[in-house]
Amino acid sequence: MLFTYDSYRQLVETITRNGYAIFGIEEILARRADETLPESDYVAIRHDIDYFPDRAKAIAEIEAERRIATTYYIRRRFFDSNIDLVRMIAGLGHQVGYHYEEVDTHQKAPNLQVGRDAVGFFIGSLLDIDRLGFRIRSICAHGNPMTDVDNRQVVHLLRDPSFLEHLAFTYDREEIRTKIIDRLIGDASIDITGKDFDLYIPDTGRFNPRFNMKDRIDDCAIAGLSGLDDLDRLLKSGTYRHIYMNMHPDRWSGDMVTWMFDWSFDTIKNIGKLILGKSAYKGKLVGAKATKHHRNVMESLGEKPDEGQDSGS
C-alpha cells in the first residue's frame, strides 16, 4: 500500500535494488550546468512541501538513514513559521529550494499589476530567505489545480533582461542580480524537459495521471503507479534510464487514521478536479487567465508578449 512511511522506505529500496542511483533534482540541474551528469541509471527526486512540514521531516529522515539526499521545495510561510524544521532538513544533507506561488497569491489584483506585484513579492521572498541563511539555488512552482493561472509567469518575466528596469521598487538591482538571478541554477518546473529525463512519475492524483492537471514536464512521458510492484516492473524493464519523481510528503503518513483521512480528502479533491477542470496542461501558461495576465503585463511594458506562452485549453 502506497503513501505510508513504510511504503516510502520500500520505494527507495526498490529504486536502489534495481541499480538506480538517487539524486535530488537540484543536483541534476547543477551537474547539467557543469556538464558532469552521471552516466549511470538514476532517479531524481523532488519533494514539494505544501501543507504539513512535519511529514517532510519524516521523509527527510528516511532518506538520510539511507544516505540519500534529495531536494525539498518549501513554501514561503514555512520559512517564517517552521524555520527550525527547514534547518533540520538542510542539516540532514538535503537541498532546500523555494516553492513559489506569487501569481496565485496576486491573481485578484488588476491584470496590469499581477505580473509586476508577483515578481516584486517573489524577489522579496528570496531576499528574506537569504537573510535567514539559505542560499537558494533552485526553485519550483506550486501548482494549484483549482485555478487556471501559472505561477511560473514570474520566472518567465524575471528572465527578460530588461524587465527589472521597468519595475518601480526599492530593492537594489545589483543585489537582485547577485543573490537571485546569478545564483539560481534552474527551475525544476521549467528547466527540465524530455531531453533530460525519459519518464516523469509524480504522486499527484495519488500517482494517477488522470487527476494531474498541472504537474507535468514538457515533452516527457508520464506514468502512474498503483503499487510498488508497478515501479519494480518498470525499473526492471530497463526501458527508462533517467527518471524524475515528484513526491509530496503531505500525502505520506505514519498511521492508518491519517492515511484514511488523506485518502478521503484526495478522493474528494480528485472528483473536484474532474468537475472543474476545463483545460489540459501542456507545459505552458495554464488557462486563459494566465495568458491574459502575461499579455497585459508585457504590453504595459511596451514589449511583445511571448507567443510561446499559449493557453493549454
What does this structure look like?
This protein has 313 residues and is an alpha/beta fold. It has one domain (5-300): TIM Barrel. The protein is 46% helix and 12% strand. Strands 1, 2, 3, 4, 5, 6, 7 and 8 form an eight-stranded parallel sheet that branches. Strand 1, helix 2 and strand 2 form a beta-alpha-beta unit. Helix 1 runs parallel beside helix 3 (53-65), helix 3 (53-65) packs parallel to helix 5 (83-91) and helix 7 crosses helix 14.
CATH homologous superfamily (4th level) name: Glycoside hydrolase/deacetylase
Low-confidence segments, given as residue ranges, are: 278-283, 305-313
Treating each run of at least 4 consecutive H or I residues as one helix, how many helices? 14
Total number of beta strands: 8
- The percent of residues in helical segments reads 40-55%
Question: Span between N and C termini?
Answer: 35 Å
Quote the average pLDDT: 86
Attribute tags:
313 residues; alpha/beta; TIM Barrel; eight-stranded parallel sheet; disordered C terminus
